[in-house]
Structures are given as C-alpha cells and as structure tokens.
Amino acid sequence: MKTLQLKLILISALTALSIPATFAQEMNFFVTSAGSGQGGNLGGLAGADARCQALASVAGAGDKTWHAYLSTQGMNAVNARDRIGTGPWYNANGDMIARNLDELHNEDDNRLSVRTALDEHGRPVPYVGLDDDGTPLPIELQITPNVEHDALTGSDANGMAYPAGNDMTCNNWTSSDEGTAMLGHIDRRTLGPGVSPWATAHPSAGCSQQALINTGGTGRYYCFAID
Fold first, then answer.
1. Burial 182-209 (b: 16+ CB within 10 A, else e)
2. CATH of 25-225, one of 3.30.470.20, 3.40.50.1820, 3.10.100.10, 3.20.20.300
3. CA within 20 to 30 Å of 61's CA: 23, 91, 128, 178, which one?
4. Residue 180 burial class via C-beta count within 10 angstroms: exposed 0-12, middle 13-18, buried 19 and up
5. Segment among 1-10, 64-73, 177-186 with least mean pLDDT
C-alpha cells in the first residue's frame, strides 16, 4: 500500500513538473512617469519616441521598440493609431489593456482605468479622487495635491490626426508656447459625471509647461511597444 502511495505521489510530482509555468505578460504599454518639462515641445515625434525608449530602458524593457501615441497635423500627417503596432498590450503589472486597435479605441471595451493606466514602473498617475458614492470630489478636496491625469495625444477618438487648421498638436510637438494639444484622461475620470475618454477629453489651455499644469497634467503621454 505504501509503495502504491509513493508511486502516486511521484507521478503527481512529475506531472506538475511537466506543466509549463505561467509567466506574466511583458510590459508593452505605459504612461510616461513625467512630461518633458518643456510643455508640448517633445522634440517632435522622434523626440517623444526617444523618451519612451529611454524610460522603458530604465524599467528593464529597452529591448523593445517604443513609440509615442501621438498624431501630427498638416502635410504628411501621422495618425497615432498607425504607429503603435496591433496589440495586444499589457501594462507593467501584466494586465491587458486591449487586445487590438479596435478594442483600444472603443471606450466601452478597452480596459484602461486608474488601476491599469500605469507608468513604466507600475505606478498610477495622480488621479481624480472619488467619494464613497463614486462621485468625483471637488478640486479643493482632491487627495493628490495636483491631478496629473491629462495625456498628450493630438488625436481624435479613433486615434486619427485632426485636419490642418486648428492646432491640436502644439505645432507637431515642437511648441512650448503657442498652440494647443488635444488631451486624453489617463484615469478615465473627470470632475463631472460619467467616464472620460482616454485619448480625446479636451484641448489644453496652451503649450507651455504651466499651461499643461493649469489644465490638469504635466505633459505625460502614452507609450506602446510595436514589436
């Protein structure tokens, strides 16, 4: 009897060893932990991508190719959705935020929220606080000293560039003075009712660093790995 039990235990152990371990998905999406410090001047798309790459490298994910989720306007306009790969995308904790581009750009289907839209170190951004009933607290009662939930995108709800004319990209991410930028809400929250869009919530008050702070952010943006 004891011999049979030992055999069963051995078989169970070998079976367990033969089952592949389940590993957390590697991060291929994050929100920058800070802005450039120069308002909407990111050094163009190339500068924004380089910052994504540098931040990812510090967080141990520099072996991937990183692009900023940003559109540009005018001649040779670029759509943010065309430069971030096809998904699926996972945050620093291994949580999936979207399976593909269509899901990412569907406000009801993507999984972006205050708990999943994390920076490269897995930290949430300073977000809009809620009371016990889920109602946004007035600005003077917010828990964090400065809400930083705005993300630069320059994009419409489908991740497409705006037509030339009204500046929505701080002069294609080279201005720290004149112009405006379309912003999304990283935490999907607003001081009003309902869920706020992650990519196209409202324009900024300007392109200076102070203008972005006054609007509700610091110049953060989204980064996606394309490979």
1. bbbbbbbbbeeeeebbbbbbbbbbbbbb
2. 3.10.100.10
3. 128
4. buried
5. 1-10
